[in-house]
Amino acid sequence: MVRYYLIEFADGSVTRSADPWARAAGANGRRSMVVDLSRTDPDGWDADRRPTTPISSDVIWETHIGDFSNAQSSGVPAEHRGKYLAFTDSGTTLNGEGAFPTCVEYLKNLGITVVQLLPFYGFCGEDDPIWKNTVAMIRDESYPLSFAGHAIAEIGCEHAPHPWILSICNSLLSDHAESALRHLRRTAMDNSVACESVNEDTGECETGEAFATCAGFLSYALYCALAR
Questions:
Q1: 3-state secondary structure of 79
Q2: Cβ–Cβ under 8 Å, residues 94 and 73
Q3: CA distances in angstroms from 106 to 63, 94, 102, 103, 205, listed in the order given
Q4: Is 116 helix (H, G, I), strand (E, B) or coil?
Q5: DSSP helix/strand/coil, 198
Q6: What per-residue confidence (pLDDT) applies to 51?
Q7: 150 phi and psi angles, rounded to 5 deg
């Protein structure tokens, strides 16, 4: 059983507000959830232990759950492809032919010790009011990391205070495709290879040369925007 809660004030008004310390949330994170997570644990969870590899020796691989095993040639059973279950399959090889290891077997051969799963939560709809208000806020000139008014009028972040290519990706997917394409045409990036951030006026690479994860997301965002 799960419980959601609202905040009631002294004047009788009731406000829905997510608790930043909550362990779980409802759809789109709008409502915090009180839930007994032990009741969702799979069999054998109590016996699960962390790997003993020292952090200083870790080799990290980033991947998306879907991209990791979606391909028919992955050697993963069809019912596991693109799902968490693909990470439980051992002995997988290209096309199941036994010659070239794939998925977890491939990572083991590379010496990977840690797999970082990139965004795996649900996504809100484009008409979600919180999403729309957030987009409007970060694009406003008053937002410290907004580059509104510059040639590349996208969003940066504190550790790379220049327009991010990932911001262009988000613009492509959030009803700003026309301006995003215009910005993209102005970017030189890293010799035409996707990078982390570019100069807001010249479009030249500022940080994160040859950003492979960004390149994949940019390809996907372009595909979605141009297919509309």
A1: helix
A2: yes
A3: 13, 10, 5, 5, 32
A4: strand
A5: strand
A6: 83
A7: -95, 170
Give 151-172 as a DSSP string: SS--B-BTTB-S-BHHHHHHHH
Look up residue 4 and give its two tokens: 């959601």
Q: And the tokens for 120?
A: 């795996």
Closest CA to 189 of 172, 213, 165, 167: 165
Structure tokens at 116: 């970082």
Helices marked H in the chain: 65-69, 103-110, 129-139, 165-173, 177-185, 212-227
Instruction: Say what the pLDDT of residue 151 is.
Output: 94
Can you tell me whether residue 102 is helix, strand or coil? coil
Distance CA 92, CA 75 (A): 5
For residues 148 and 163, give the distance between their C-alpha atoms in angstroms, rounded to a whole number. 10
Mean pLDDT, consecutive 10-residue stretches, the chain (228 aa), reads 69 79 73 82 89 89 90 94 93 94 95 87 74 84 91 92 93 89 90 89 91 86 88
Determine the 3-state secondary structure of 213 from DSSP: helix
Pairing relation of β-strands 197-198 and 60-63?
unpaired
Cα dihedral 86, 91, 94, 96 sign? negative
DSSP calls for 26-60? -GGG-SEEEE-GGGGPPTTGGG-------GGG--E
Q: Are 52 and 39 in contact (CB under 8 A)?
A: no
